[in-house]
Structures are given as C-alpha cells and as structure tokens.
Design brief:
Layout (H helix, E strand, L loop, with lengths): L4 H23 L7 H17 L23 E3 L9 E2 L2 H14 L8 E7 L2 E8 L2 E7 L5 E3 L2 H4 L13 E2 L2 E2 L5 E9 L2 H14 L7 H9 L4 H6 L3 E8 L13 H10 L9 E3 L2 H14 L7 E8 L2 H7 L9 E5 L2 E15 L4 E13 L2 E7 L3 H7 L6 E7 L5 E6 L23 E2 L7 E3 L5 H12 L11 H9 L14 H4 L7 H13 L5 H7 L7 H10 L3 H6 L2 H5 L6 H12 L1 H13 L21 E5 L7 H10 L3 E3 L8 E4 L5 H9 L2 E3 L1 H7 L3
Parallel strand pairs: 2-13, 21-22, 21-23, 23-24
Antiparallel strand pairs: 1-6, 3-11, 3-12, 4-5, 4-9, 7-8, 9-10, 12-13, 14-15, 14-17, 15-16, 15-20, 17-18, 19-20
Bound molecules: 2-(butylsulfanyl)adenosine.
The site of 2-(butylsulfanyl)adenosine has 14 residues, from strand 3, strand 10 and strand 13.
Length: 682
Amino acid sequence: MAVNEKSVKRAADLRSQLQKASYAYYVLDAPDLPDSVYDRLYRELQALEAQHPELLVTDSPTQRVGAAPAEQFTSVAHNIPLYSLENAFDIEEYKDWQARWQRLEPDVKEADAVTELKIDGNALALTYENGVLVRGVTRGDGITGEDITQNVRTIRTIPLRLRMEEGPSGKQTPPPVLEVRGEAFLPLDVFEAINKKREAEGTALFANPRNAAAGTLRQLDAQVVADRQLDFFAYTLIMPAGTGDVTAPSDQWAALECLQALGFRVNPNRKVCGSAVEVFDYYSDWEEKRHDLPYLTDGVVVKLNSFELQDRLGFTNKFPRWAIALKYPAEEVPTILESVTVQVGRTGAITPVAELSPVQLAGTTVSRATLHNADRLAELDLHIGDTVIVRKAGEIIPEVVRTIVDLRPEGAQAYHLPSTCPVCGQPVVKPEGEAVTRCVNRSCPAILSGSIRHWASRDAMDISGLGDRWVQQLLDQGLVASVADLYDLTLAELLTLDRMGEKLATKLVSAIAQSKQRPWAKVLYGLGIRLVGSTNAKLLAENFRSAQVLSETGGDAIARVYGIGPEIAQSVRQWFVVPANGELLERLAAAGLQLEAAAETEGAGPLPFAGQSFVLTGTLPTLKRSEAKGRIEAKGGRVSGSVSSKTDYVVVGENAGSKQEKAEKLGIRQLSEEALLELLGE
Ligand code: IVH
C-alpha cells in the first residue's frame, strides 16, 4: 500500500514525541509522559513502520534494538585519535604539569580550567551526519576502534537524532558532520543486578563495572546490550566551525553546554576554576563525595578552558598538553577471588595472597593482592569465587579490604590457612595475641632462600649476579645453608650448578668477595632483623658503631635513638639473644665482613642528615623531586609527604602551596634548592 502524506506526517510526529519523552525520562530524569501513553505511541509507530517499511529511518525510537545480531565488528580508523590523559596523583605533580605548559606559553600566567569528574568507563566516539547518529566506535587503541553502532543505539542517553532548538525561522539545521566523545558506563546498581543474575545462572561474574561495560559494548546481540542498561556522559564535542545553525563553541565550558543542548547527558558536577587552589578544592571535595555517586569515578579531569590555548599547546604523541587527570590515590575496585596462594617470607611469616581476576587499579593491572595474615583472613571470611574489593594506595601493594557476601556463589568453599608450611611441611605457629602465622623451622628452604636473596640485594650486600635461580640451586644442592656459607664457596663448587659457566662463576666469586667491603650499616640491614629496614639500619649503625657494641646495648638505650623506638629496639634485642645469630656474626667476622663502622673522616660525617626530616614542595629549578629525595636520603635524611612539628626542613620550589604556609606557621626552616645543595655539600 502506497504511503500517504498523512502517515508520513504521523510517523514524524510520533518519532518526535517519543524522542522528547525518552529524553525527559533518561537524560533529564524527569518523565513527562506516563509509561502507558509512551507504550501506546511506541506501538502505533511500530505498526505504521511495519505497514510502510519505507517510513523506517535509522533514528526511529523503535530502532534502538532493531537489528539482528552481528557476526562480528568491523575496525574503523578514528578521524582524530582518541588520546589518553597524563595522570597526576597530587598537587605537586599537578603543578609540574602546569609549569610545563606555562613554559610553552610564558605570556599566559594562570588560565581558566574546566574540572570534570573522571568517569570510570569506556570511551566512545559517536558520529552524527545531518543530526543523525550514524556511527559509534570504541576507543580501541586510540587510533582504530570497533564499529559497535548497533549497540550504541541501545543506550538511551545517546540521542539517535540531535535535539535542535527552535530558531526564529523554525527548526535549526544541524551541522553536516559532528563527533561527540564521552564515557559509556554501567551504573553501580545495574552492575550489581547483572552480577546477581549471572550468579543465579552460574555464569562467571564481572570483576567490576568497567569490565562489565566493556564486555557489554562488545556483545554481538544488541538485545543483550539493551537489557544491560548502559549509560553515557558526553564530554568532547568536535565540530567544524561555520556549518549548520549550531555555533561552534570556543571553549570547553561552552562545548559542554552545547552537548547538553544537543540532547546528551553531560555530567552536572563540573566547574570553571581560575587557580590551582580551586582545582584542588574541587579534587579534594570529590574525593569524599564520589562515594555517594551512583557510578564509579577514578579522579577528576582538568582541561584548559580556551580552545585557542588548547590548539596552541597541542598534543604529545600520547596526551593532550592542555589536560591532565588528577587521580585519587587510594582506589577500590571489585573483582573476583579465584584462589588463595601462600607465601613464606624470609622471616618465616606466612602471607596469604589473593589470586584475582585481573582488574585495573590506580593505573596498573592487579591480579594479586595481599590478605596480610590469619586475623585478616578471618575478618574477611573469604570463600573462593567471592566478589572482593581490592584497594591500592600510592605505592603500597594492593590489598583485599572487603568481601561482598551478598554476591557469594552458592556452594562456595571457605578458605582457611594451611596448618603446615607449604614449603617445608612443618607445622606453622601462631603465637597468642600475634596476627602473623610463622614457619619456625630455621632450615625451611623458603626462609633460607629469602634471607640469602635479601642479603645479596642492592641495598644490602649488593652481590650482582646472585639471582634467584642460583640461590635456589645452591640451597637445593646443599652448598649453602646460611649467608656465611656464601663466603666459603669455591669456583669449583659454583661450576657444579646447572648452566653455570666459567666466566659467570668467576664473576660471582669476585662479587661475593667484593661484598666484604660493604659498610657496617649495610651488613646490619642485610641480616634481615625484623623491622630493621635500610633507614633504621643506618641509624643504628651510626649510633652503635659495631656489632659487638649493639649486641651489648640494652633495649632502652636502643629505643632512645631518634627514629627507632621500643618496638624496633625489642626486635633487635631478640635477634641478638639467639645463639645461632651470635655464631653467624662470628663466622661473618672471620670471613672479613665489616661488622664495625669505618673510622670517621674529619669534618662532616658520612651521614650529616641522619635523623633529620625533610619535606619537598613546589617545582625545584633543576632537580626532579625523585632526585632531591635520593640525595637527601643518601646523606641519611628522611623525606616525608607532610609538614609537622617534627619536620626539620621544608625545601621550597616554585608554586609551593599549603606545605610552605604550614612551615611558616610552625616556624620550620625553609630551604631553596640552592641552599639544599649547599647543605649537601654539592
Ligand atoms: S577527556 C584528550 N574527560 O579517561 C581528552 N576523559 O584516562 C581525553 N574519561 O580515555 C579525554 N571521564 O575514557 C575526558 N570527563 C572526562 C573523562 C574522561 C573519563 C576517560 C576517557 C579517557 C580516559 C583517560
């Protein structure tokens, strides 16, 4: 039946009414049409389209889940690459970034920046031709992505047709081509519901909302995608100037408003900031508030507002120079506990380790996390297959912080620490009142190999070439049973090791001999006394100038050393009272190791900063932060992140912030880089 004008008009009206209603419902979250009315209109449009297939257009609301499942997705090259963002984790790194772009634009002192939430989802690039969505592509590797248009259409907050404002002469014309970028994500409640359903069906659970969203976007059956209720926040508008009736915005703020006017969901928690302080207030504010949001965020994104400035700054080969992601240091993400393994450390401590479905956390992929000890295990009540929350704060090893008991698969097995050492098979011991379970078998191969590796490590005896595989063989063959045995090893003995050649063996013998020259502080650290890390070893070695003196010193006197304290002192005492340790020291002394400090040279001692605490703030003129830190530590000083009354010096660079203010308040000495170098004697 030929389609008449009335039907054409009716179909267009229905599309427009349904589009409006869907926008109000999904994007504005303010429904303006009862569901029953929406359904009636929707069915009327469906019927019309069935009767007159020529009325069917790709942006019809009936086409969100129209097409048959795809065979596979095709690769599409992005017109403009999807860059990723450089990360900063604190104000100093943020200011470093600011200083870098300001060097390129010396005339611009402080520029307005737009701060937005960093949505933890999957980036999408959407192309609209003459106002109609024609393509949706995943980020892929940033250069090429996958065409997932069918799936993108199912996302209710992505308009199939751009909203065009009424102008003086009727509806305005959209630009011929326009690209919108943003983040597709799964709201937390939807993520939880999906995993609950999968659990009931016995399918593998998604580790976190981002993985679930990524998996959903790559589903071949768009019906499945529609059921999963993905959402989308738009944050980038790419529009050639001077086309259509939409005025091309000249800054990011206007672009976000424009995206909103075009019918997209734009995150409302955005701000224009005029200074680094304002940026930081926004960042700190959201560090707390983000936990109340119904979706995950992993930081904030700061973009210089002016497009003109953005264009002048351009891109490095990876990142825009005009934007940066300020990430939150401690991140928590859910993932699945696949199994638990047990590690035996050099002190015999038994550490349970969670083996996890790999998950992105603070910029790295995490597949293992510590479970600390038996007490923590008991608190966590872990079952294999549990959904657990892992957290990573700064440099600290990831840890499992919580179990989501509600998501536990049926019949999941509870996990308990073994009662014997997994390496030597001897019973383990958990002293009353202590959290740590230990293997107390002094000849446990795990303890021996751990202590030898520690002894040979860079900060201790620095025996290069004595890698794990050799340590293992030396132990297996019974050539070594303590670090003292290393000094009795002969070339002939080393040559009996599998794959050991003459050259390597000679090098190793000489490296072991050279290690006899390491100073007393390094030897002390190498002994691996509990709680005596390299800094504490330096402090102790400086105050107690030989093993003999230290072994004869009482706990109280040790505890009085600045920075040591009673717990460490007690651990040192406990070590020295074990007869086997006394024998070890005797053998080391006989082998020619330095169990005494070298005679002091005149003038400044070797560690003039020992026991002193430094804080670095701002951008230093020549030294990187890591360099400044390294040099201070090399002279015995400590570098900490925050200023307190115990801080001795604050090293102040350009754009220093609150730390300098605090130093002033507390009357702490401030140093320029130059003054620091002078103090260092450089
Ligand atoms: S802007 C060149 N804004 O974060 C501009 N990205 O780590 C690059 N993201 O790939 C993107 N929220 O997937 C921008 N408000 C936001 C964002 C955001 C989340 C994602 C995006 C990007 C990744 C970079």
